Amino acid sequence: VLSSALRGETSSEHWSACCFRSKFAGVFTGFIALFLLPIWFGFGLVTFGLLWPPQVRRWLFRPTDTCPSINQRRPRFSSNEDYLTRAKLSQLRADVVDLKAVAYDQNYQIQKDLGFLKDVIYRAVMEDDWDQKKME
Q1: Nearest-angstrom CA–CA distance, 45 and 51
Q2: pLDDT above 60 for 69
Q3: Distance of alpha carbon 72 from alpha carbon 70, whole angstroms
Q4: What is the 3-state secondary structure (H, E, C) of 62-76?
Q5: Which contacts qualify for 32-39: CB closer than 8 Å, 24 or more apart?
Q6: Is pLDDT of 101 > 90?
Q7: pTM surpassing 0.70?
Q8: Does residue 6 contact residue 29 with C-beta atoms inside 8 Å?
Q9: Distance from C-alpha of 37 to C-alpha of 43, rounded to nearest angstrom
Q10: Which comes out higher in pLDDT, residue 71 or 113?
Q11: pLDDT above 60 (res 94)
Q12: CB neighbour class for 115 (10 Å; exposed up to 12, middle 13-18, buried from 19)
């Protein structure tokens, strides 16, 4: 879209058809692309990326390696450690299931209590209205 806008082409398929119709807009976009972006890039290099967004800093200062480093490799467990890890994971899963059941039970009890309170308040309001009608 930007390259077609810089060339002055208009397209009905992209949003650029509405934004880049005037000659001024095309010249302005070209000015930004040709002059301001390299200046911004240069100032970013001088400030070690302080003026750049995090994505640009990550792209320039942390290039990806083709071979994985030692820290990125998957650690090797012995069969005993693997069994202990699986046992802990199984226990954690069981604990999560139990916690979920307790949470559902508490939620049901809270909803039941709220329904009871709502009913008590409704009855109290209705009795109050009934008493006021009797007095009149």
Answers
A1: 9
A2: no
A3: 5
A4: CCCCCCCCCCCCCCC
A5: 33/2, 33/6
A6: yes
A7: no
A8: yes
A9: 10
A10: 113
A11: yes
A12: exposed
